[in-house]
Amino acid sequence: MTEPVNYTDVQPGTRLPTRVFTVGRADLVRYAGASLDFNTIHWSERAARDAGLPNVIAHGALTMALALRALTDWAGDPAAVRDYRARFSKPVVVPDDGEPARVQVEAVVAEKLDSPRVRVSVTATCGADKVLVMPRVLVALKE
After folding, report:
1. Which residues lie below 8 Å from residue 13, measured CB to CB, with a gap of 6+?
2. Enclosing domain of residue 19
3. 2 occurs within a structural domain
4. What's the whole-model pTM score?
5. CATH assignment at residue 38
6. Is residue 1 part of a domain?
7. How many CB atoms neighbour CB 46 within 10 A?
8. How many domains does the chain have?
9. In a domain, 30, yes or no
10. Averaged in consecutive runs of 10 residues, what is the pLDDT profile of the chain (143 residues)?
11. Rounded CA gap, 141 and 143, in Å?
């Protein structure tokens, strides 16, 4: 975690540091245990393919959490996020080939609101695919 960001130090257009997170099969097992989401599409290639998916996929909430972590790390406070909304556009596919999936998160301050809040636009991709649609986050910064 970094030092908290000051509201006065950011302007619309301020780019947050790009973050890349890796997601491997072991991460899916750990997340399933923590979330109690043992849906077979997150661990069984057969079940994933039967559901029309190309392979095992990461939990949607895990994908959202990775994007959120990029923001809370930047803000310097995990409690700084006041609102977070997104929709899923593509799944994060996690094949069993020894290479983890890579989720890249880029974000920019879209709007400065009443002190000390900012609205942040986020782009989360895995390869060439956007995995979240219209993720918008409201973050309260240090005054």
Report:
1. 108, 109
2. 7-140
3. no
4. 0.92
5. 3.10.129.10
6. no
7. 10
8. 1
9. yes
10. 85 97 97 96 97 97 96 93 94 95 97 95 96 92 91
11. 6
